[in-house]
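agent> fetching stored inputs for the pantoate docking request
agent> found them:
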Amino acid sequence: MFGFNLVLLQRFFVKVMEIVKTVAELQAKLSAVREKGQKVGFVPTMGALHNGHLSLVKRCVSENDVCVVSVFVNPTQFNDKNDLLKYPRTVDADVKLLESAGCAYAFIPEVSEIYPQEDTRIFDFGTVDKVMEGKYRPGHFNGVAQVVSRLFDIVAPDRAYFGEKDFQQIAVIRAMVAQLGYDIEIVACPIVREADGLALSSRNTRLSENQRNLAVKISETLFKSRTFASQNSVADTISFVTDTLNNVPELRVEYFEIVDGNTLQSIRSWDDTTYPVGCITVYCGEVRLIDNIKY
Ligand code: PAF
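agent> prediction call returned; pasting tokens
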């Protein structure tokens, strides 16, 4: 009897998250939200959710009337098809986590729903999409811009939330918002780390136990480089990080660049910017991990 009353109470008072699979259904629900003058916050994800994603969702829930989260592994942003095949997919667990974080609508579309026709758009965001990830993953940011613009058109949020682990991605999204004229506030949220410092990433689940123990050297070295940087040049700081990590078994630095945090152009002297950020990509075995640090 008591249990039955609890179920009834939940039904009437707790807003249960809805799973939406089609654009038409989501837009119908969101137009009802907007008719009430409510603000919509949006967190785009590729699923395999962890506490980093949940920090974005919780912030979105706290700052908007309605929080929409998309779970969509976007094929157009994978320049390596093997990486796409291996990308972890954990939809059932994702749904439970989103519900517990207070998400109102989990948008989980099929590829045909996002791309009814092939998206042939080619973007050019000037300098921000050409360096670092743009150089090593050709086509990656074009695919990100395709899917995020498509999702922005569908959801039309007031605010959208992105994690700073993908530091360059945020710069690209801001450039896209300016170029395409979206009236959407982009909210950058801090990196969430494991207790030992490793930046949370869906790719961490692909590390063996030994690799996971070695991967912590990435954040450890970045943190140490802050002290090093305070007494050394930009070039020496780059060598310090790169050499330290390349000496760890299983780790191979793809690039480490110290850039201006707004333009993403490399700096040569600490005096070149008031906003220096070190951005790194390291292979741990076959798993590609990224991280960054503000100096
Ligand atoms: O950061 C990600 O998970 C993806 O690049 C994004 C923004 C969800 C687009 O697919």
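agent> quick read of the result: Residues 58 and 187 are 13 Å apart (CA to CA).
agent> awaiting further instructions
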